[in-house]
Amino acid sequence: MMRFGTIGRSKTITWTTVVLAAATVLAACGSDDSAASPPDVAGKEFVSTEVEGHELVPDTTIRITFAADTLSANAGCNMMNGGYSFDGDTLEVEAMASTMMFCDDGLGDQDTFVSEFLTSGPTVVLDGDQLTLTSGDVTVTMLDREVAEPDLPLEGTTWILDGLVTNDAISTVPLGVEASLLIEDGQASVDTGCNTGSGSVEITDTTLTFGPLAITLMACEEDADRTQTVVLTTLDGEVDYLIESDRLTIRHPDGTGLDYRAAS
Asked: pTM of this prediction?
């Protein structure tokens, strides 16, 4: 009996050892992290805080917004966008389309740098609110835009017009034309770039509904008149709006729109 008990224990130990060894092997296989998981960036916008290996134009940043399967980028002038996917932690971006606004002070070259960087297959690491993209000798460190630059309030902020949208095409405000918008206590004060006026406005989280605007009737030069036409066409009835940091975009159902930035 003693001998049987000893043999029984010996078998038990032997099979336990085999099972534990197999479990160890399986655990080791399951913990193989050689294939990095794609970062969860969909629905987020990031703004650069540091760029190593390339010098940006002074007082500019890189902004990247990730939708479900497309991303958009801006580096101070044109808006660029393209489809994207991840192969592990490698970002794969299709050829990027771009708006065609004139860019001076080196911003055109900066657009080219950002487009080439994003399409070069950078590795991407998301650590909390910080996103790091690396390709070759260039590393771009970014921070979630909502953390880096909280949204300004719609009301009480003076918004300066710097972009016009007609037929879904964006253009800069003509040189020398200054237009603005201020909303307070249900009233909109509008400078069209030539004339000024005011009217009522109803506000929801995503829409503005403008009542008729009472506007002065000064004659406008050609550039100011063109700007005024887009302003008055857009600020008419119900429109969609979005605030991101210090930027306000307004879009009318007819395809016109206005891009504002907060007054400094």
From this structure: 0.60
3-state secondary structure of 25: helix
Q: Is residue 198 a contact partner of residue 213, using CB atoms and an 8 Å limit?
A: yes
The 10s digit of each residue's pLDDT in 73-129 is 999 999 999 999 999 999 999 889 998 878 888 999 999 999 999 999 999 999 999
Residue with tokens 């004339």: 195
Residue in the structure block whose two tokens are 């540091």: 50
Domains and CATH numbers, the chain: 44-148 (2.40.128.270), 158-262 (2.40.128.270)
How many Å apart are CA 170 and CA 12, to the nearest integer? 76
Question: Smallest Cα–Cα separation from 81: which of 61, 91, 67?
Answer: 67
Copy the structure tokens of residue 51: 């760029």
Q: How does pLDDT run across 140-190, given as a tens digit for each residue? A: 999 999 999 999 999 999 999 999 999 878 899 999 999 999 999 999 999
In DSSP terms, which residues pair with 226 in a beta bridge? none
Q: Which residue in this structure is represented by tokens 């857009």?
A: 234
* Separation of alpha carbons 159 and 176, rounded Å: 17
The structure tokens 């969860």 sit at 40
The Cα 183–Cα 261 span in angstroms is: 14
